[in-house]
Design brief:
By secondary structure, this protein is mostly helical. Helix content is 76%, strand content 3%. It has one domain. 28% of the residues are buried.
Length: 220
């Protein structure tokens, strides 16, 4: 057999494996991504740490006096955190170059992105045991997040370290957390947002590429 023939025999299986990997990402990736994002949020305790550090830094201990109100606050903030990591994870998923057989790695096709999103949201609904109404409310808020982020893309890139992020998570969480000290709450929410987006980048990269990805790789 010629050298060309041997090379062809090696290349073709590799192309098939790359194409199979792309199909596998679209088929299995949504459920895996939903599960790992939820696990990451719970493991890293970003929301409780965000609230605890804000209370200590600004002496706002009254926020934690009433146990039932504090639990309700954490649940509302956890939902906002899930919206933030979902929006970032889907943003990465749509833009990330994926293996495409012999062709140069390319972002997910639009139809594949639509299918991925639908399966991902269905997996989130099952995982959190949402009712149809809860799932619809989450999807409505997610669309609002995505629309605002698309509108504010330039300010997101150019933000100074000492400025609060122009992001729906920051505004909504600051109001929920402490509307009396809104700017302080916005700065604290901005720091939490950095952690959430790093988590989303790390998890999404590892799901799409089937390997551990350093959180620093996804920093803006």
């Amino acid at each position: 057999m010629s050298l060309y023939g041997k090379r062809a025999r090696c290349i073709v299986p590799l192309q098939l494996r790359m194409m199979d990997r792309e199909k596998q990402i679209i088929a299995d990736g949504p459920a895996e991504l939903a599960q790992r994002l939820a696990e990451g949020l719970q493991r890293e305790r970003i929301v409780p740490r965000f609230v605890d550090s804000y209370v200590v830094e600004h002496g706002r201990h009254a926020l934690q006096v009433h146990a039932s109100l504090y639990r309700d606050l954490l649940e509302l903030l956890r939902r906002e955190a899930l919206l933030a990591v979902t929006a970032r994870a889907l943003e990465i998923t749509y833009a990330e170059p994926l293996p495409a057989g012999r062709a140069k790695p390319r972002p997910m096709l639009r139809k594949d992105g639509v299918a991925f999103r639908r399966k991902f949201l269905a997996a989130l609904t099952r995982q959190h045991k949402w009712s149809a109404g809860d799932a619809l409310d989450f999807q409505t808020d997610l669309q609002m997040y995505e629309d605002l982020l698309a509108r504010n893309s330039s300010t997101r890139r150019n933000r100074k370290p000492f400025e609060a992020a122009n992001h729906p998570f920051v505004d909504r969480c600051a109001f929920l957390l402490d509307s009396s000290f809104l700017e302080k709450a916005r700065m604290a929410a901005s720091r939490a947002l950095n952690e959430l987006e790093n988590l989303a980048g790390h998890v999404t990269g590892s799901v799409l590429h089937g390997q551990e990805t350093s959180p620093a790789r996804r920093k803006r």
